[in-house]
Specification:
The chain is mainly alpha-helical and 78 residues long. The protein has one domain: 434 Repressor (Amino-terminal Domain) (Orthogonal Bundle), CATH 1.10.260. It has five helices and two strands. A two-stranded antiparallel sheet has the order 1-2. The termini are far apart.
């Protein structure tokens, strides 16, 4: 069973993902496409929900986002 990481009032993973994505100049569809290319199943709809903080993110999704955005876990989890 895959673990899900809950976003709460102290950790804003979705906001951090969105901020980093915009800094890198990527569109949401580009991030999703790159995630799919490295083997992570993701739809744009799910990705949008993660950025908005309304869907929990799995550990494998977080790892894929980290790789695609070329960032660190520290930046994603701040």
């Amino acid at each position: 069973m895959e673990q899900k990481i809950k976003q709460d009032d102290k950790i804003h993973i979705g906001e951090n993902v969105r901020e980093i994505r915009l800094q890198r100049g990527y569109k949401q569809t580009e991030v999703v496409r790159r995630m799919q290319l490295i083997g992570e199943t993701m739809t744009r709809e799910s990705y949008v929900k993660i950025e908005r903080g309304i869907q929990h993110i799995s550990a494998s999704q977080l790892r894929a986002i980290k790789e695609v955005l070329k960032t660190t876990y520290d930046e994603l989890l701040k």
